[in-house]
Design brief:
Chain B: This is NADH-quinone oxidoreductase subunit K. Chain B: It is an enzyme of class 7 (translocase). Chain B: Its EC number is 7.1.1.-. Chain B: It comes from Isoptericola haloaureus. Chain B: NDH-1 is composed of 14 different subunits. Subunits NuoA, H, J, K, L, M, N constitute the membrane sector of the complex. The complex is a heterodimer of chains A (about 625) and B (about 100). By secondary structure, chain A is mainly alpha-helical. In chain A, about 75% of the residues lie in helices and about 5% in strands. Chain A is built from 24 helices and 2 strands. In chain A, helix 13 packs across helix 22. The longest helix of chain A has about 45 residues. Chain A is globular. The relative contact order of chain A is 0.08. With about 100 residues, chain B is mainly alpha-helical. The chains are: A mainly alpha (about 625), B mainly alpha (about 100). The interface between A and B is medium-sized, with 11 and 14 residues.
Chain lengths: ~625, ~100
Amino acid sequence: MTTQTLSLAPWLVATPLIGAALLLLVGRRSDRWGHWLGVLASTATFVIGLVILLDMLGVDAEQRVATSSVGTWIDAGAFTVDLGFQLDPLSMTFVMLVSFVGTLIHVYSVAYMSHDRDRRRFFAYLNLFVAAMLLLVLADNYLLLFVGWEGVGLASYLLIGFWDHKLPNAVAGKKAFLMNRVGDMGLIVAMMLMLATFGALDFGTVLGSAEAADQGITTAIGLMLLLAACGKSAQLPLQAWLGDAMAGPTPVSALIHAATMVTAGVYLLVRSGPLLEAAPDAQLVVAIVGALTLLFGAIVGCAKDDIKKALAASTMSQIGYMMLAAGLGPVGYAFAIFHLVTHGFFKAGLFLGAGSVMHAMDDDVDMRRFGGLARLLPVTAITMGLGWLAILGVPPFSGFYSKDKIIETAFVGEGWQPWVFGTAALLGAGITAYYMSRLFFMTFAGRRRWLIGEGAEARHPHESPALMIWPMIILAVGSVGLGFALNAGDRFVHWLEPVTGHAEHEEPVLPIWLIVSLTLLLVVVGAAIAFRQYAVAKVPTTPPPAPALVRAARVDLHQDDVNETLVMRPGQYLTRSMVFADRTAVDAGWLGLAGGVGRLGSWLRGWQSGYARQYAAITLGGLGVIVLVIWLVATAG
Amino acid sequence: MELTNYLYLAVVLFALGATTVLLRRNTIVVFMGIELMLNATNLALVTFARMHGDITGQVLAFFVMVVAAAEVVVGLAIIVTIFRARRSASVDDVNLLKS
């Protein structure tokens, strides 16, 4: 790539950052045009990214990996960290996804947030998020990546709690922030281990020398990176924040908590691929976490009546697929990223559709109060329908290409692993079909349940304005065609090869045609059950009594109870006992000493009578004592 | 005459001075007691100088005299000032510094 193109890399981060800074510093004076500035910054970022991408496509695969350094950031003797940017197919994939979907969601937000008096601040945070996310994916070392990592966490926190005048929203933001801190500790520990083992934090050194390092160390680093990824990507056991994060405005849920930020964990693991390959145990744990989360999210998604929370559970589950793929080694990396990209499109589209439905339904999110909206919101219904078919994995929609590859790859291997992972992925596909169809039918098919009960007359669902419709249409087109376009001739896999390395194709334990037909069969069965229950049958407007598993899934399989029992209460007990110990032991000691000194002072104060003759007598007495001592010493000597 | 007799005299004078300081309330008299103690010390110093055949004690006595002269000036000034302020020459009335 040319040096001119390389020198553009910092501008990818700087452009949205300048946008955010302007919007925040200029303040209310920019209220009238601030949102368009935000859109402009995001669009400019996309254009810069496009220029770099076109330049990258013009060179041979071997020359597509390049780094450019703005300067030295930290210089401490033998340890230096550069403000370095790495341009390669992986980071460019993310740049394009983030800036393209980001720009669409900026446009959508102009209309969606038009009634909000803080719209400018919202756009400032969105710009801040784009800048931080691009820094995360462009950094050429773990420390700079960490800056972006924290930046997206901050933006996520600010945007979840955007309507912080409502207490639950503020609490949700805090919850997300705190749970992410746990993951961040993992990344910090991983960096410390890298620094101690390899003496550097840049990808080149760390990943280059991972193979030669002690396997115990690489396993520890791998597990710490996984912890970090679990925090950011809402994987077990740090998954509990994502559902609550839906308290933020819907465009935020679409961009940050579905399409981009939550996939940062997958990026981290794929980027650290050579490290994980040097630690097979950690790799296995990654796959197990992914498999567990994909089932966990899918089960939770089946019972949620809140349209956004159902989509959040689905996001968790889909990222579980990506984690599973990332844990399968080099064969899975490309498919993890492939699914990440297609998921970014159809899930963002689904969320924007959900936002459009909420827009029509006066911000109601209860799907039991939706129904029969297809005719009133035709564009929303069609775009969401395409996204729905894409996430189901129906050919030829994009989810089919990406998810099916992951299921196939999960069946590759020896021993018990292909059977367990493959079955989990297969089951997940079936459950996904059920809950996504449930969501779609509950919203768009069946009776118009919003006509039941109070306030029904006031409801006149209407299609959203053009600024909201067009981003949804564009994302829907992506949901339809992206998978086919990128999969043709394994284009995407080859595109990523400079980063992920070339992986030999291995045959799964089951024939591919059987896996594909099993997947499609499960998908059809799942969708059919959902159709019978939610499109044909009457849907009650209040949750009906249900078996234990459904009741558990309604409360996220008791994830908050588990966290409270295992972590929060022991933690509170620990802090309380620390406070108690501090008071009774440490404080009591020092307070006792201070009290003793005080009492001594009070006693000595009694001697200050104010009578000069008494002082003289004391002086004389003292003199007498001195003379006596001298005399005693002299006679003894 | 035995030189120690001078020392006895010095002790008696010092004790007299100290007793005066402790027992009398009149500031002027207390002041005189202090002077007496200083001069008792001077006598002891001079006596020791003679006993050891060394003039250090005599030199020290001169220093004490000089300091005493200065002290008399300052001390009397303070006493007069206090008397003007408080209309009293009793040491017990000067007790503003008590706790």
